[in-house]
């Protein structure tokens, strides 16, 4: 079962009418029923600065206008459902290992919050938390994936969509959503680049074993050098602590540079590298989790 499928198993609402993926540069939107055509609305530079420790909305008017441009008019009464895919660097994602877990769900959540408490730069007791227990991890204990963000940050995102007549029934983040685009088997490292962040995931046979999001230095003369430098210690860590190096590297978000980036990183990091050609991987992954994905091309 995919990450989003496991997360959504906690909720029983029907699929929403719309899905949105948010980034610092703009918002991508698609209906969740065919035909699922992606629309895009730019955000002015500096209007949104994703972060788990400060207000993300620096220009609330511009953000609200971008949302309004994407939401079609409706004659229906009541709010229409929406899924929001938040930027990776607005949320903290963690993989937690437990030898045992309590039977009661409220006790499990309390234990997860306790484990997260010392690792977060904000009050976990006041934070919005979603988590799921990964299937297949009982041989070596329990692996829990937790996504957490200050509640006020999540509310700020939701407010603009509520003002447009939508009900954000599901809120997730790009790293969890894009996992539905990834192979179900094998051991690999994922590097997803956006304009301001690099998300690094390690998966073995569909199970997430490591998640990191790193801020990227703006206007660096050689962005790939920075990314290579960021990925190298993760590979060393996995080799030392996770039973070996991943078999390959998958790149997302590199656009026209995908082929050149895969070639260079493959050489510098000594790992086979491929790219997934998907401009909005969080949105595409969410749609795929609903079994209506758009075509995804994996470059050789």
What topology emerges from the helices and strands here?
Layout: H1 3-8, E1 18-22, E2 26-31, E3 39-42, H2 60-70, E4 80-86, E5 92-98, H3 105-117, E6 127-133, E7 142-150, H4 151-163, E8 166-173, H5 174-178, E9 187-193, E10 197-204, E11 207-215, H6 223-241, E12 248-252, H7 258-269, E13 273-277, H8 281-289, E14 297-299
Parallel strand pairs: 1-4, 4-8, 9-12, 12-13
Antiparallel strand pairs: 1-2, 2-3, 5-7, 6-7, 9-10, 10-11, 13-14
Helix pairs in contact: 6-7
Task: Describe this protein's structure.
Helices cover 29% and strands 30% of the residues. By secondary structure, the protein is α/β, with parallel strands linked by helices. The strands form three sheets. The chain has a six-stranded mixed β-sheet with strand order 11-10-9-12-13-14, with helices on one face. It has a five-stranded mixed β-sheet with strand order 3-2-1-4-8, with helices on both faces. The two termini are 27 Å apart. Mean pLDDT is 91; it is low at 8-12 and 292-300.
Short characterization:
With 300 residues, the protein is of the alpha/beta class. It is built from eight helices and 14 strands.
List its traits.
Nucleotidyltransferase, domain 5; 300 residues; alpha/beta; disordered C terminus; 14 strands; five-stranded mixed sheet; six-stranded mixed sheet; Dna Ligase, domain 1; 29% helix; 8 helices
Adjacency order of strands in the biggest sheet: 11-10-9-12-13-14
**CATH class descriptor name of the largest domain:** Alpha Beta
Order of helices and strands: HEEEHEEHEEHEHEEEHEHEHE
Q: What's the alpha carbon Rg, rounded to whole Å?
A: 19 Å
């Amino acid at each position: 079962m995919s990450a989003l499928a496991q997360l959504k198993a906690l909720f029983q609402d029907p699929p929403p009418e719309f899905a949105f993926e948010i980034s610092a540069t703009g918002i991508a939107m698609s209906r969740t029923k065919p035909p699922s055509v992606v629309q895009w609305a730019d955000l002015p530079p500096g209007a949104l600065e994703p972060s788990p420790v400060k207000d993300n909305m620096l220009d609330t008017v511009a953000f609200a206008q971008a949302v309004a441009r994407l939401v079609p008019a409706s004659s229906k009464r009541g709010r229409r459902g929406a899924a929001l895919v938040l930027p990776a660097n607005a949320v903290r994602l963690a993989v937690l290992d437990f030898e045992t877990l309590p039977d009661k769900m409220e006790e499990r959540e309390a234990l997860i919050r306790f484990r997260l408490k010392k690792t977060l730069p904000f009050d976990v007791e006041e934070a919005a938390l979603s988590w799921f227990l990964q299937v297949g991890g009982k041989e070596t204990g329990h692996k829990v994936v937790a996504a957490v963000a200050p509640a006020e940050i999540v509310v700020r995102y939701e407010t603009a969509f509520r003002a447009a007549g939508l009900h954000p029934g599901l809120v997730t983040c790009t790293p969890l959503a894009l996992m539905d685009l990834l192979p179900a088997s094998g051991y690999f490292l994922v590097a997803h680049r956006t304009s301001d962040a690099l998300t690094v995931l390690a998966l073995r046979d569909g199970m997430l074993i490591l998640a990191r999001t790193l801020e990227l230095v703006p206007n660096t003369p050689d962005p790939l050098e920075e990314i290579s430098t960021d990925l190298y210690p993760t590979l060393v860590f996995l080799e030392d602590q996770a039973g070996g190096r991943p078999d390959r590297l998958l790149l997302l978000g590199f656009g026209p540079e995908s082929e050149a980036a895969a070639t260079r990183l493959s050489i510098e990091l000594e790992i086979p590298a491929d790219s997934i050609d998907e401009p909005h991987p969080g949105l595409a992954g969410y749609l795929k989790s609903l079994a209506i994905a758009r075509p995804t091309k994996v470059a050789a």
